[in-house]
Design goal:
Elements (H helix, E strand, L loop, with lengths): L23 H5 L2 H10 L2 E5 L5 E5 L2 H8 L4 E2 L6 H4 L26 H12 L2 H6 L1 H13 L6 E3 H6 L1 H11 L6 H14 L5 H24 L10 H7 L1 E2 L2 E2 L2 H32 L1 H12 L4 H14 L8 E3 L3 E3 L2 E3 L4 E4 L1 H4 L34 H18 L4 E2 L21 E3 L4
Parallel strand pairs: 2-10
Antiparallel strand pairs: 1-2, 3-7, 4-12, 5-6, 7-10, 8-9, 11-12
Helix pairs in contact: 5-12, 7-9, 7-17, 9-10, 9-13, 10-11, 11-13, 13-15, 13-17, 14-15
The structure holds protoporphyrin IX containing FE.
Length: 429
């Protein structure tokens, strides 16, 4: 893995030969390398920084097909290296077993059952009812730095907003939410492997969630209260008499936190960053927000997701049999990583893919995935993204970058794409 303190050189043009992947230069701007792969090696076997070998899928058509292919399992037992006891794939905390039997690690029929049950509790209606709370959180966070005239938008805004939002939604009491903030901070800083601090944070989170769920189950009334939280909703969710076990509720709460946190941090971070780099687009959006016509905000968020989305690579998949993808033979047990960021810039699917166009309408991007694992939290992500951008541009209308682009640091993790910090300046409120 590259040294986190190394300076990031300015982005280069399209590489002529095979590009180096997973360097710091690549983390700062992976798109030229992905363009090369799409053209010359669309299904490409490579060694990841962890040493694991995996196939990278970079064309839109292949990516969409792979995401919906039932022969590609989400269950790590299908990984050939795992079968030989040396598997190193994984997300933080993988070894703390119980929380890991969640939606992104399982296949049908278990996936179908769990997804159906959680969908009963995590409904679009619940998310829509949450809108005033997201607005309140957004304003409170902006209040905390608006008088300074400067801020680090990642640490002071994009990072805390989703963690408090998900805690509220789940029903974590306000006095405990700062603990979650600390645990999540540990995971985002050291994500990528179940090392020391991350494993400890996951353990604490697991202990806390188990106790919270137990408490809520004990006090659950016979009929749902109108403002019932999501954990209570999950406990109550039933399908043909089936309920989630306490462990399944804990794993579900964990995946909602885990999947809904860093993604949203990066949606806000990458989104604001790209708007600040594209003044004409930003002005267009600002005018549309002033005129209170929500249209451009809606298409704009989708375009920001396509152009520089939070999830660079979809999470792991493993071939359960020998198969062919994009003309390439993939052996049983091989890991397959679908590169959403590459697919979403494929000129075979998108006109002028390297142009940020907030008015783009033909925009069936893969930023939220595709198929049965399509993002469960997309309505919440859209709500948070739209509220965050609209409120920032309204309250801090002259917000601007306070650093050279070349000095900005990207996290350089495998799955997510996001900035370490985003210094901005503005006229104090
Ligand atoms: C799945 C992206 C926000 C919960 C996914 C997947 C993607 C994704 C690409 C599929 C991964 C794969 O197939 O390997 C995003 C983006 C977000 C976002 C770009 C923000 C902009 C959220 C939020 C939540 C959430 C806010 C919940 C609070 C989930 C869950 C899954 C998922 C539970 C697993 C679904 C399943 O396996 O059935 N997300 N996500 N996500 N997301 Fe999101």
């Amino acid at each position: 893995t590259p040294d986190a303190t190394a300076p990031v050189p300015p982005a280069t043009g399209c590489p002529v030969g095979r590009p180096d992947l997973f360097t710091w230069e690549f983390a700062a701007d992976p798109y030229p390398a992905y363009a090369w792969l799409r053209e010359h090696a669309p299904v490409h076997r490579t060694a990841l920084p962890s040493g694991v070998e995996a196939w990278l899928v970079t064309r839109y058509g292949d990516a969409r097909q792979a995401l919906a292919d039932a022969r590609l399992s989400k269950n790590p037992v299908h990984h050939s290296e795992a079968a030989h006891g040396k598997g190193k794939v994984g997300i933080p905390g993988e070894r703390s077993a119980n929380l890991m039997t969640h939606l992104l690690n399982i296949d049908p029929p278990d996936h179908t059952r769990l997804r159906r049950l959680v969908s009963k509790a995590f409904t679009p209606r619940r998310v829509a009812a949450f809108a005033p709370r997201v607005q309140e959180l957004t304003d409170r966070l902006i209040d905390s730095f608006a008088a300074k005239g400067e801020a680090d938008l990642i640490h002071e805004f994009a990072f805390p907003l989703p963690i408090y939002a998900i805690c509220d939604l789940l029903g974590v009491p306000p006095e405990d939410q700062d603990d979650f903030r600390d645990w999540a901070g540990m995971m985002i800083r050291h994500g990528g492997g179940p090392r020391g601090g991350v494993a400890r944070s996951v353990k604490k989170m697991r202990g806390y969630l188990a106790e919270l769920i137990h408490r809520k189950r004990e006090t659950l009334g016979a009929t749902p209260a109108p403002d019932e939280d999501l954990i209570s909703g999950l406990i109550r969710a039933s399908d043909h008499g089936e309920h989630l076990t306490e462990n399944e509720v804990a794993a579900m709460a964990f995946i909602l936190l885990f999947a809904g946190f860093e993604t949203t941090v990066n949606l806000i971070g990458n989104g604001v960053y790209q708007l600040l780099r594209h003044p004409a687009q930003r002005e267009l959006l600002q005018k549309s927000i002033e005129a209170d016509d929500g249209d451009l905000l809606a298409t704009g968020i989708e375009e920001l997701l396509r152009y520089d989305g939070p999830v660079e690579l979809a999470t792991w998949r493993f071939a359960t049999e020998d198969l062919t993808l994009g003309g390439q033979r993939i052996a049983e047990g091989d890991p397959v990583l679908v590169v959403l960021a590459a697919a979403d810039r494929d000129p075979a699917r998108f006109a002028d893919p390297d142009v940020l166009d907030l008015t783009r309408r033909d925009n069936q991007h893969l930023g939220y995935g595709h198929g049965i694992h399509y993002c469960l939290g997309a309505p919440l992500a859209r709500l948070e993204g739209q509220t965050a951008l609209a409120t920032l541009l309204t309250r801090l209308p002259d917000i601007r970058l306070a650093a050279e682009v070349a000095d900005l640091r990207w996290r350089g993790g495998l799955i997510m794409r996001g900035l370490r910090s985003l210094p901005v300046q503005f006229t104090p409120e």
